[in-house]
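Please, structure for the following, as tokens.
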Amino acid sequence: MGEWLRDTADGIAHLLGLLEPFAPYATAVVAFVAAAIALLNLHHRRQADSRAEWWRRVEYAMDLTREEDKVGRNTGMQLLNHLLDDERWDEADVKMLSDANEILISELVDKLTLAAAEPRPSTGPPGLFRRLWYQATRRRSK
């Protein structure tokens, strides 16, 4: 056991002796490696934050498309179209967004067909009878 340890220590000492002329550059090499890792980490973090912000905007646009107001729905659809032109997504995001879009469109179509089928309440009697009713109520108020 002692023999093996001594041979290993001698080998390490010999290797360090060979690397001794490069010792002044060790700090620069370590700093370069640390800077490269930091830049890669920064790039990855920026990309992840950018994609998270993109998804937050997609969720907001999808919420707008589910509003009762026609302007809100149109705004949401325009936002979704605009967000698809952005380069922050990948193919899985587009597939998921496409599936969600189909669900939203079918939901809107169902809602609009139900709204068109329901009779609308009138504010008063129709036609000639409405005019007569208006005149009669006006006479009573005098």
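The chain is about 80% helix and 0% strand. Helices lie at 2-19, 26-65, 70-85, 91-117, 127-141.
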